[in-house]
Amino acid sequence: MATDDGTYEYKLQHGDDFGRTYFRRFDGLAISSLGVGTYLGDSTDEVDARYRDAIATALESGINVVDTAINYRCQRSERAVGRAIEDADVSREAVFVSTKGGFLPFDGSRPDDPGEYVKREFVDSGLVEREDLARGSHCIAPDFVDDQLDRSLDNLGVEEIDLYYVHNPETQLHARSREEVYDRLEETFTRLEERAAEGDISKYGVATWNAFRVPESDDQYLSLPEIVSRARKAAKAAENTATHLRAIQLPFNVFMADAFTVEAHEGPEGPQSALWFAHEAGLNVFTSASIAQGELAAEIPEDVAERLKGDTTVQRAINFARSAPGVTSSLVGMSRPEHVEENVEAGRFDPLGADAFDAVFE
């Protein structure tokens, strides 16, 4: 697992190469504000090899955050991450690894009949109750998440996962009420609290696409205050002294800035954006789609670009995401070493200060 000493030693080795606040705190850890994402790409050996090379290059270049999920590329991304960590000339104690469970994963490749595969491997086997499924592909029941966590540990080849997310719980809102989703999350949080106490995960979080950045009236909305409340109840049920809920993940980029602009979460003095609520609640924020899955590689609005530092459009887009208040690390898909080389350069520039970032929205 990532340790305080391991990550701070890594920061000492690389910190002088980067700009202000490139390394940020996650509890006692020092982690890079740029992380490797592993979502995109075909489920092939060729892409696996590219990811292994890219991740190893990133780890040796000053990026010590790697994010994946069991369903990414039919479990191949997790396995590529594990091999890259083993191959890279970097201590495991310096590397912060996060993964996710919630979507039913294929194994190695997409089956010819996905529905039949899900029925055979998950429903008929008893691993998933049919009534727990949403859209035929998503489940966050405690026993299922428990099983997926074990599989992720095996895929990654690690003894402990640094951050384990419940993946896109808003998907369950297609099949059940919001209150039922909160109840199920509390049950699953309780299981994750138990796994944290057992040493299988260090912390857990909630990774979303829509839930935290849409208005309360939206069908995909979930309340951060309620999520935090349910995590506290889960910690108590597991007889832990404090909750291990420490992070959220959500999209944030120049075109998708809702996490900063939409005030949908009730704070002590009224509604707050997801970023501000998370910051005040002590939750770390990891941004996904930080360059809009490559769309921002070509162009960002001129009035925004001129405020940002960076030699390329991609670097400026990354620095926009890294500049948002409360963001711990911005994730960017990197499946080729040349992607890493360009992206890591973004960290050599200082991010926007708080006032300068606010001015973008004036």
Automatic annotation (TrEMBL):
Segments forming domain NADP-dependent oxidoreductase: 34-213, 293-359
UniProt xrefs under Gene3D superfamilies: NADP-dependent oxidoreductase domain
Superkingdom of this protein's organism: Archaea
InterPro entries linked: AKR2_Oxidoreductase, NAD(P)_OxRdtase_dom_sf, NADP_OxRdtase_dom
UniProt-recorded name of the protein: Aldo/keto reductase
